[in-house]
Structures are given as structure tokens and as C-alpha cells.
Amino acid sequence: METLNEIDHLQSSGFGRPRPRHGLQLLHWFSNDYVTFNNDSEMVTVRNPKKKAFGFHRFFDNIEEHDGQCNQLLPDQDLPYYEVGNLNAAKSEDLPHDVRKNHTGHNNDSNIDRIIISLQSDRVLDRIYVTQHDHHRGAFDPQHTYRISKGLISIIRNLDLDDLLEQTGYALPCPSSMDTLNEMRHLQSSGFGTPRPRHGLHLLHWFAHDYIKFNKKGEMLTVSNPEKKMFGFHRFFDKIEEHDGQRNQLLPDQGLPYYEVGNLNAPGSRNIPRYVRKNYTGHNDDSNIDRIIISMQSDRVLGRIYVTQHDHHRDAFDPQHTYRISKGLISIIRNLELDELLEQTG
């Protein structure tokens, strides 16, 4: 059985998508609202599943015979298993609306996804699995059953639901044309901010450490309103370009204002730390092509973060080198010294 450790693995598994499946919404609720981590880094449930809140109930493995062999879905552990996700189960109406909203009430794809957990004690979690129900066989599908690692749970806890759905391609007919960078290896392979004299990695380190912080809700807040134009921040207005009869723009329409930072010629940019600016030549060259673009939900609550590079010849940003930065990657960078970030990105 495959273990899913990263968002990429979750996406490639196909679990919980496409619409109207509800597994990704269920997994987001489970990670953010049903489990916590104690001081020993153990995963602990906020409620004992024995109480049957949210539709939890005991799971007993159906042992099936095939070609003379006995097959079961999950390994024997001498620990009780519990499942959640059946939207017809008693008390499943206590699950959030986002999890239930696409349920048709019939035995179809809107109700096939489940989470199965094993417990070491009343509330200490042992293992987490996701699977899908085959209504025709009346059983779960072993070919679409995966173990979920503690690391993936931690990643999902750093994502808004919209971020999770976007990064796994839930609402998209095909994979998004813009990559989201979730981990250091993604940042490294993107090539953003390298090689010298580019300043993007220095800029991103300053941004993650000094320009934003996290509140108790896990939201990212800016230390100052970008409208104040500190550090060279200014409004970003997407240039819609026509190519082969199609209108293309750099970033998605969100109905939220965008702001950019990183232009070392911009007023206020001298307030950016010297280590970000030290390789700047003063000319239109690679020492000043990197930018961060953010969307704002309110005065200081961040929406999304993008990195990109400016093409001085076209006087526009390069869509082939524009990436979304996940909240999880920001958290990783906040735990790194600048030298460590530069070393890990080559």
C-alpha cells in the first residue's frame, strides 16, 4: 500500500476528485479541526470516535477470498479502526457544509470517500488511511486505498481549503498551468532567484521572516499595509496580452487587489535590507528581475503569494517563470537562516 507524504502524492492518487467527490474537503476538515498534535508530536483526536460524532463508527475489515487467497483492506494491528465520511451515517450532518454540500443523497460519487483511522488509546491516533467505496461491490477499493503520513497531515494543516483543492486539481479539468511550490525541492527546481546576481531568494527570505507573521487562526498577516508603499510595495495591475486570438493574463482574477515588491528602483525599496540589495548593479539586468506579488483579503490579511521574474525586453512578467508559493513553504523558509536557504536551493 502506498503512503502519501506530499501534496504531489495526494494529487497523483486521484483521491477525492473530481467534483462531486468530497474526500479532499473531508481530509482538510479532519487535518485542521479533528486532530491536533500534543507535546510529544503525537496526533490526538479532539473527540473520541467511539462517541460517533461526525458520523464516526467502527470499521471491521471484510476479508474477501480471491484465487484461493484471503484479502483484507488494512493490516492487522490489534487496534480498533474507525471510519468517517459516509454522508448517510448518523450524525454526519455535523460535518461542515463544505464537506457535505455536493452530496446528492444517492449512492454515487458524491459519497464514496472515507477516512479510516486506528487508535492507540482513547484519543491518540496511530494510522490514517483514505479510501473509496465501491457501491456495486459493497466494499472499499484496495486499489484506491492509501496511507496518509503525519507529514502530509501537517502540510494540509497549513493550507486553506481553496489552496488544497487548487493544488490537487479538484476544480480543474486538467492540471493547473501554474505550479505551486510547496517544498524546498520545488523552489530549487523552479530556478527562482538563481543564479547570482539575482536577488529573489534573498527577497523571499526577508518577506517570510520579516514582512509576514501568522495569527492564531493560521492566517498570514503583513506587518504593514502594502498600500503604504513601504519597502517599494505598489499596486500590481495585470497586463492582459493577446496571443493567437486568446487573451492571457499572469494571475487569476480573484476580486482582490494585488501588490508587488522587489523592484530595487522603486521608491521605498531602499528600506529593504542591504543583503537583498547588495548585488544590484543599478542597470536593467538580472540583478533586478525578481518580484513577489501578493493578494490581500483585507488591510493586512494575505490572500495568495506569487513569485515571478521580469522580462526587461518585453517589459512584462514571464508567465513561464511565475509560481504560487504555498503557506507551507513560507513556514519552512521561516525556519531557515538565509545561508541555509541559499545552500538548499543551490
From TrEMBL:
It comes from the Eukaryota. This is Uncharacterized protein.
